[in-house]
Each structure stands twice: as C-alpha cells, then as structure tokens.
Amino acid sequence: MTIKTRQIICIFLYLTFFIATPLIIAYAAGYKFNFNKNRTMPFSLQKTGMFILDSQPPNAKIFINNQIQQNLINKIFFNKTNNITTPAKIKNLLPGEYTIKLELPGYWPWEKKLRITSGNSTYAENIFLFKQSAPVLIKATEINNLANKNTIESSDSEVLSRFKKNNNIKYAELINDSKLIYANDFEIWLNDLADKKQTLITRISDNITGIAWHPSNNYIIYSTDKTINVIEMDEREKRSNTELIKFDKISSLFINPKGTTLYFQAKVDDQEGLYKLNIQ
After folding, report:
1. Would you list the domain boundaries of the chain?
2. Residue 174's pLDDT is what?
3. Over 50: is that where the pLDDT of 135 sits?
C-alpha cells in the first residue's frame, strides 16, 4: 500500500468520524433531519417526539401510517421479524400528524389520527379493544319490562329526577357525583354538574334505544334499533365509533360492573329474548 493510498484512507476515516459522530449524537438526543419540499431549505434538523401507547388487552400490533412497527435491530442483524406491540414507546418521530392503528386477533381494531409535536410525548394509554364475538341467547321470551339502570324511570337519584321534566331525555346514567350521561332520540350528551357544562358526544340519524358508561371511563356504549356501538371519549381528531353487532329490535342495554359483558333485549329473525355479548 502506497503512502498516498494510506493518506486517502486516513482522510476518509477522519471525515467519516467527524460527520457521523455529530449525527449519531443528534439522533441520540432526539433530533432528526426533516427533508421537505421547500427549495430554499431542502432539509432541517428538528427535535423529534414519541408516541406512548397502551391497550387493554395488551400485545396489540402497532401500525403508523399503515406501516407495521418492528424492532429494527432484530430485523437487520438477526433477520427476525419482531413486531412492536402494546405497551410501547415509538420514538424519533418528526413533528406532524400520524394515523395510529392497533390490531389484535379476535378484537375490533382501533384507529386514530394523533399529532406529534417537537420534543414532546403524545399519549394514548387508555385504549380498550373490544372482542369480536357472537351474542348468546339467555332467555327466549318476550321481555317488555326488562329492568335497566340506564332508564330515567328506574332511577331514584335526585340528580336524574331533574331530567324527567325534559320530555326529550330518554336515558341517563350517573357516572359519579359530578358527571352523568344522557340521551334523547338522536343525541348523547355528557353533563358536568360541577362545571355546569354540557358536551355533545354524538348526533346520529338512527333512534337511540339505550346507553351505558364503560368502567374504563373512556367509552360510551349505545344501542339503536339495529346496532350496538361503542364511541370513544377521547376527542382528539374525532371520536372513534365502532359497531359491535347488528340485530333487530335492540333495547334495554346493560353492562356488567367489570365492563366485560353486555346484556340486551333483541330480536333475531322470529326469536326475541334476552342476549349477552362478551366484549372483553
């Protein structure tokens, strides 16, 4: 090897070191190059952010902008496909809006658009994945007066009794001492009694036949004449709304205290009765 060749190799190694080292340090500190379409500034060094995700049940696969998230170290060095699952921290993401999707076999997927801001963490930790299951008939009979804690008529609460005066209110449930949910024919509302604030959760075109507050404190389950749906309370981007089942003549919706099973009256073909649906 000639002296000139050695000098070239040495210069190359020095340049590689002085260029790569700052980039590695910047990446470790949470910075990343953002290549954009601005011709005057084709790229910039930006502080990144991260998603902190968790679900119940755990071990859901994570997709960001339809790309499944994988452990790159295992994939590159060990040629192993190792998907990242909840709970997880997805780091070094440039500021912007991302579509997050969680998938777990046997459960309805969860999807939402969330935003990353520079140097900050975006949380989505109270995600409840609902099981895909078939309803089970408990009692095959006409049930005209099924007890339902969600109907105003069955409640002794002084708070709920105030709503009896409003003929448009059909169903209500007291969440705690300061909050309740209620519904008329086509709307579901959250009432903060302490702040005297009412928030419209959803407005639909189908007739609402029941509501139930999920114990996770992040979902409202409601029924129409034909479907049972679950709507998320997290209002970032928009509230996700998932259809759990489709039946005929659904009414008298009730959820058990653990939030694992729904009970309701429905008609399937000519069979009317009391059904249950496992959602966890």
Report:
1. 46-128, 136-278
2. 85
3. yes
